[in-house]
Amino acid sequence: MISVVIASLGGDLSATLNSLNLGTLVPDEIIICLPNKGHLVKNLSIYKNTVVVYSEKYGQVCQRICGFKATNGDYVLQMDDDVVISSDCLELLMSSMVNHRGRVAVSPCWFNIANNEPLHKHKQNGILMFLYYRLINGSTGYSPGKISLAGTNFGVNPKEVHEKNIDVDWQPGGCILHNKKNLILDSYYPYERKAYSEDLIHSYFLRNSGLSLVVVVGAKCMTKINPRISLGNDLYQDFKARLYFVNMSKLSIFRMCLYYIIYIAISLFRRGV
């Protein structure tokens, strides 16, 4: 039995729900966790395998954990409410899960829903990018699916890899399939509301519990590109959460600060300051 958990503020989730229910493997139940009864999901009644639960708190992580605790399935797919999966995505993830015999969390490759291009950039060439990769990750440089010494993350671009399954350091939190017995049910995120770097922190705890993290290259999910984090409070919140992760992971605060200096410099340059 497969459950899906979606943390949401409600609204029109039809694209996400349709992609789940029209696939080659359809989940037995979909649990949408809303903060309270003041939030509603549009046209919910047409989805017979879908129910709503309430966390009574705002926050992606606490809502997701509330949904986890309500599941009945042996396997649980966590999913964001702005994600669409390909028709065979869940089937491919489930196949990989079975082949790895459960001690694993599996996730798909990410694509831009607007143009169907990979969401994660390929390796950038040139002396400036060579120096950038060295600054944030030492002699290892660019490394798909890995976390840098600065606590930043490299995604997996399917055009760059040839394996069917890639072992990674982190997984984007918008689409991950778990064996239910491996779920983290204690709140691991120390801040409220928007969960900056949550996927890195979640991946840290999954790996520390002895799980392997695997990206299934043939599995595909799609979403919109997030805008660059704006200078000001958003960047401060991102810095604070990443610093928490870097300290916890014993990575380099110095390299992390270099990353933010470069980020701010590029942002100011683009604004013409």
Total helices: the number is: 7
Q: Strand-residue fraction?
A: 15-25%
Q: Bin the helical content.
A: 25-40%
- Category from helices, strands and their pairing: alpha/beta
**Looking at the structure, what is the overall shape?**
globular
Query: For the terminal residues, how far apart are their CA atoms?
Result: 55 Å
Question: What's the CATH H-level superfamily name of the largest domain?
Answer: Spore Coat Polysaccharide Biosynthesis Protein SpsA, Chain A
CATH architecture of the largest domain: Alpha-Beta Complex
Q: Strand order, main sheet: write it out.
A: 3-2-1-4-8
Look at the structure and give the mean pLDDT: 94
User: What is the count of β-strands?
Assistant: 9
Number of domains: 2
Regarding CATH, which class of the largest domain? Answer: Alpha Beta
Low-confidence stretches: none
CATH fold topology of the largest domain: Spore Coat Polysaccharide Biosynthesis Protein SpsA, Chain A
Largest sheet: 5 strands, mixed
* SSE string, helices as H and strands as E: EHEEHEEHEHEEHEHH
How large, in whole angstroms, is the Cα Rg? 19 Å
